[in-house]
């Protein structure tokens, strides 16, 4: 087996709002939009009656897949990075300070940009559903 990355998925509660955040705030382009449903999908995801709307966003060498399910699942509690099962997306930027300064009002950040002991600069923001997105400058 020789797998390669295809996409990294985030389930969202409102696809239009999520696309606006990833496109307008983080500057990612929409690659494709599509819907999936039917028996094979229901069985594959293990959810009776499931269908979903998808948008693939261009993140350079990978795609971010935003998914809005019908029926919508229960909200999970807001996790922290040190909890098992926690997830985040990592996106590299050229100038972290200018990205931080240009964030629209209302975008939640964990802290202002920080430099780690390895020299990498990091900034964690939350998308509209609370998913952590790490912006980093190496």
TrEMBL record:
Entry keyword annotation includes Nucleus: no
Stretches assigned to the VOC domain: 4-138
PROSITE patterns xrefs: VOC (PS51819)
Keywords: Metal-binding
Ranges annotated as spanning the membrane: none
Signal peptide: none
InterPro entries: Glyas_Bleomycin-R_OHBP_Dase, Glyas_Fos-R_dOase_dom, MMCE/EMCE_epimerase, VOC_core
UniProt entry tagged with the keyword Nucleus: no
UniProt cross-references to PANTHER family, sorted A to Z: BLR5325 PROTEIN, METHYLMALONYL-COA EPIMERASE
Protein name: VOC family protein
Organism: Haloarcula saliterrae
Species lineage: Archaea, Methanobacteriati, Methanobacteriota, Stenosarchaea group, Halobacteria
């Amino acid at each position: 087996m020789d797998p390669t990355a295809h996409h990294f998925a985030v389930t969202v509660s409102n696809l239009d709002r999520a696309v606006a955040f990833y496109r307008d705030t983080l500057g990612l382009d929409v690659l494709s939009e599509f819907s999936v449903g039917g028996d094979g999908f229901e069985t594959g995801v293990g959810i009776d009656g499931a269908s979903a709307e998808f948008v693939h966003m261009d993140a350079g060498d990978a795609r971010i897949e935003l998914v809005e399910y019908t029926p919508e699942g229960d909200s999970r509690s807001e996790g922290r990075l040190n909890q098992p099962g926690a997830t985040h997306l990592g996106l590299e930027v050229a100038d972290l300070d200018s990205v931080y300064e240009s964030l629209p009002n209302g975008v939640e950040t964990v802290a202002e940009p920080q430099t780690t002991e390895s020299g990498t600069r990091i900034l964690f923001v939350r998308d509209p559903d609370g998913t952590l997105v790490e912006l980093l400058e190496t």
